Protein: DNA polymerase III subunit delta
Amino acid sequence: MKNLILFFGEEKLLIKEEVAKIKQKIVPKNLEAINFIPLDGKTVIEEDILKACNIVPMMSAKKLVVVYDARFFESEKTKQEDYFLNELEIIPDHTYLVFTATKADKRRKIFKMIKSKGIVREFNTPSLKDKALWVQQRIKLYGKSMDLKTAYFIAEYTADLYQTDSELRKIAAFLAEKQTVEQNNLSDIFYKSLEGNIFEMMDCIGSKKSTEAVKIINRLLEQGEKGIVILYMISKHVMNLITVKSLQGLSFQEITEKSGLHPFVIRKAIKQSENFTLDELKRSLKLCQDLDMDIKMGKIQERIGLELLVTNIS
Structure:
């Protein structure tokens, strides 16, 4: 394995687990304190990274240095960049240096150098199908099984794999001795994220099912969500739909780059925005803004205002 590595992408859980595999392979558990050096890539300077790389490992042939959330793959060129790149090319064989990042500009010299001399792996958001298959396999780690339909249900209403994995752990703990996860018993233990509920509510609105949309509002309020937070999420969601609708005609990659939205959000928003015209979405956003002002001025109660909002948007 080459000793200069970059892992980047939206799926931080996958990156974390890849780093853990390397750590397990290179650094014995009893030597982690001296041969594993984690660094904060948002603040660490190049000189300190190089110093860490040049420290000789103790009681072992190898050492691991991990620079988490490295800024060097997005930020502007620094005065030390050329020197830093030259030094990275000659880090000692006993040191394995891993950078992690959410985004990486493939035009940057450091990216090209690591790709040429080391290992670069990208961890993007999986498609819904791939995510469902991942869910079906992941639940086995917790001693359970589920059919693909149930896996799709969970994949649909969770965001990144970190949240998905967290929900799977909850499900496995709740089921105790029960081995099979079934969709019809998930309602007792699996709560969609607030964002997932908003997506479902907008689906109801787009299908002119205002009664169902109101039920979702009331369910969220009964779960303890604050009305003003729900309104904020609705407004944010409508703005995302406007953004995606405005970029209609572009490729998925172009929409991702121009909008800055998470691919999971974009994928669902593209489908959902088909239920609305751009004018309808802009009108909905204006209704959200008006309700926000009315709530803050005490002109209307949150629950009544939200119920009227989803009815008027439908």
Q: What stands out?
A: DSSP finds 15 helices and seven strands in the chain. The chain has three domains: 4-122, 128-188, 194-313. The CA atoms of residues 76 and 108 lie 9 Å apart.
